[in-house]
Amino acid sequence: MKTQVAIIGAGPAGLFLAHLLKRQGIESVVLELRSREYAEGRVRAGVLEAGTIDTLNNLGLGERMMREGLVDNGLDMRFNGRTIHLDLPGLTGRSVRIYGQQEVVRDLIGARVNEGDPLIFEAEVVRIEGIETSAPRVHYKQGGEMKVLECAFVAGCDGFHGVSRASMPEGVITTYTRAYNFAWLGVLAKAAPMSDMTYVNHDNGFALCSRRSASISRLYLQVPPSDRPENWTDARIWDELHTRMFDDGRTEIQEGEIFQRDIAQLRAFIASPMQHGNLFLAGDAVHIVPPTGAKGLNMAVADARILARSMAAYFSSNSRAELDRYSAECMARVWKTIRFSAYMTGLLHRFDEHSPFDRGMQLTELDFISQSEAAQRAIAEQYVKLSDVAD
Ligand SMILES: Cc1cc2nc3c(=O)[nH]c(=O)nc-3n(C[C@H](O)[C@H](O)[C@H](O)COP(=O)(O)OP(=O)(O)OC[C@H]3O[C@@H](n4cnc5c(N)ncnc54)[C@H](O)[C@@H]3O)c2cc1C
């Protein structure tokens, strides 16, 4: 099989890239390790920045997001029983939208399949050959058989554990990492959510109350990295959420059936450069952010937008100039996004290594933000618009 762009991975990065390329008249084949059901059911991110909303709408695929997704106009941060309310449209002119990553993925897969464009599930890429040549070959296993996809470019959109980053020749990539010594216990509950996304810095640790729909809450608690979901009974989760959110009367957070729970480790990771020869990396394959700023999905979409534009410039002009700038163009934004996510993580979590002085600084920073519109605007702008890029 032959195509112009071989896309490895049908997560947000790979699927947005496939649709954006098609809009430019560029053919691609998407190879996805998992089944369609698995890919469409994977619960992860849920906050769409303004640029991600616009991209889905510009592709003509935003109808369900606009109908079912929830507009989020506020971001609240609590500490010492006080609430800082960030009025997102007032501070930035835009809002974010709450629409689960699995819904975005379902819409993108549905459109690709309906249009009859190649998207092969249960196809595991095992090797990428010839990335320094003009005809790379992607070797994948499907139904017990080895197959080859020939292409002009390979887009490695296969997440943190994929094969693409590992296919870069030794010495090409430099990595930068920060591991946090805590994790997030995340649950989905059939319970009416609080109206605004609400982060809290409590003596017991961080918590977050967010929404997935008008009747589904997405709730998180900071836990030790070695903790396990089964250590947390429903009653313990609700008690801890009420306590950390300063919901002393237990009236603010609605309880309901918890039907999904997982634990995610927090880390920051960047690999640079994001390209070598004719292999280009995008999304979690090349960077991971701690989820405190809700950026992972939005970063993946921004990468896909720049890569699609750069590939389109190559196929229309035969000049590699824009393509050669792909990594450099992404990196400045990636570092800023990691910086924001690390800032929010540092501001809102309890760290074992913090001294009373460090704790005092953290709470004073929150107090300062509560009194400074400039500080609030800086956070709101980064929360709403950081991943916006020119198409
Ligand atoms: C548990 C969890 C919770 C998260 N929660 C949040 C959140 O609350 N907020 C937030 O902003 N972000 C969150 N994130 C991050 C966000 O979901 C990711 O940043 C986003 O999924 C990145 O998209 P991607 O397309 O780059 O990678 P992925 O979504 O990981 O997609 C990669 C795809 O490649 C496929 N693949 C892997 N290896 C191969 C192979 N060898 N061959 C073929 N296909 C392959 C995978 O099956 C997968 O479908 C979370 C991530 C995780 C893991």
> Level of helix content?
25-40%
Which cofactor or ligand species appear? flavin-adenine dinucleotide
CATH class of the domain at 5-72 and 93-176 and 267-351: Alpha Beta
Shape: globular
Task: Let me know the largest β-sheet.
Answer: 8 strands, mixed
Reported by name, the CATH topology of the domain at 5-72 and 93-176 and 267-351 is: FAD/NAD(P)-binding domain
Global Rg: 21 Å
SS-based class: alpha+beta
**Biggest sheet, strands in spatial order?**
6-5-14-15-16-13-17-20
Mean pLDDT: 96
Low-confidence stretches: none
Name the quaternary structure.
Answer: single chain
Would you report the number of β strands?
A: 20
Q: Which homologous superfamily in CATH is the superfamily of the domain at 5-72 and 93-176 and 267-351?
A: FAD/NAD(P)-binding domain
How widely separated are the two ends? Answer: 30 Å
H/I helix tally: 12
The proportion of residues in beta strands is 25-35%
Describe this structure in words.
With 391 residues, the chain is an alpha+beta fold. The chain has a domain at 5-72 and 93-176 and 267-351: FAD/NAD(P)-binding domain (3-Layer(bba) Sandwich). Helix content is 36%, strand content 29%. The chain is built from 12 helices and 20 strands. The chain has helices at 12-23, 36-41, 50-58, 63-68, 88-92, 101-114, 234-244, 296-317, 321-324, 326-348, 356-371, 373-385; strands at 5-8, 28-31, 47-48, 70-72, 74-79, 82-87, 96-98, 119-120, 123-129, 137-142, 145-150, 153-156, 174-190, 197-202, 205-211, 216-223, 257-272, 275-276, 279-281, 287-288. The strands form 4 sheets. The chain has an 8-stranded mixed sheet. Helix 1 links the parallel strand 1 and strand 2. Helix 1 (12-23) crosses helix 6 and helix 8 (296-317) runs antiparallel to helix 10. The model has no long low-confidence stretch (mean pLDDT 96). Bound molecules: flavin-adenine dinucleotide (FAD). Residues 8-14, 31-34, 39, 44-45, 101, 124-125, 157-159, 162-163, 262, 264, 283-285, 291, 294-297, 300 line the site of flavin-adenine dinucleotide (FAD).
